[in-house]
């Protein structure tokens, strides 16, 4: 401790000993937020129009303690959702799902459902651009995997085992993270799926 003139003393800084609590409720939201920010960037630059699809729900019961504070207390999914995002890029229909895992060596296939696989197959039949963005948070790596490779892997055992990272690297493409846009997946579509089509 140092004593200054006029008997002023410098107090030691307080240390915060509280432990931070980890909230897993919004795990995956950071990746989703990065995709949403990327889509906003693409829209603002006139590059593409791609949006997150709303989840179709049927509201059954609403509590009205006050008119301005209506609260949904019971709701059900009206139908099985398909994929997370859809839109248009250079006249092409674009449809994709986004998944995130903390695993370092594989993507759990339990995250994909039969109706999603069927939807992706239908999009491919119509010559749409369909893929999945797979984010490995522990590795800080994101891959674009064409839907045809996801479907082929899913059909082996109907999604009961995990997809190895080696399979994803062999059949997919690394999306190099940037500051703006954060997840530049259109660059991969342009170069790898459209062959640099202008």
List keywords for this structure.
single chain, 198 residues, alpha+beta, Trna Endonuclease, Chain: A, domain 1, 6-stranded mixed sheet, 5 helices, globular
Shape: globular
Structural class, by secondary structure, is alpha+beta
Main β sheet profile: 6 strands, mixed
Question: What is the count of β-strands?
Answer: 12
Return residue spans where pLDDT drops below 50 for at least 5 consecutive residues: 17-28
SSE string: EEHEEEEEEHEEHEHEH
The CATH architecture assignment turns out to be 3-Layer(aba) Sandwich
Strand order of the largest sheet: 3-6-7-9-10-12
Q: What is the helix tally?
A: 5
**Oligomeric state of the chains in view:** single chain
Query: Helix coverage percent of residues?
Result: 25-40%
How many angstroms does the end-to-end distance come to? 68 Å
What does this structure look like?
By secondary structure, the chain is an alpha+beta fold. The protein has one domain (27-54, 80-193): 3-Layer(aba) Sandwich (Trna Endonuclease, Chain: A, domain 1). Helix content is 28%, strand content 29%. It is built from five helices and twelve strands. A six-stranded mixed sheet has the order 3-6-7-9-10-12. The protein has a two-stranded antiparallel ribbon with strand order 1-2. Strands 4-5 form a two-stranded antiparallel ribbon. Helix 2 (114-125) crosses helix 3 (147-157). It is globular and about 55 Å long. The N and C termini lie far apart (68 Å).
Q: How are the secondary structure elements laid out?
A:
Elements: E1 3-4, E2 8-9, H1 29-44, E3 49-52, E4 57-63, E5 71-77, E6 85-89, E7 92-101, E8 106-107, H2 114-125, E9 129-136, E10 141-146, H3 147-157, E11 163-164, H4 165-171, E12 173-175, H5 185-193
Parallel strand pairs: 7-9
Antiparallel strand pairs: 1-2, 3-6, 4-5, 6-7, 8-11, 9-10, 10-12
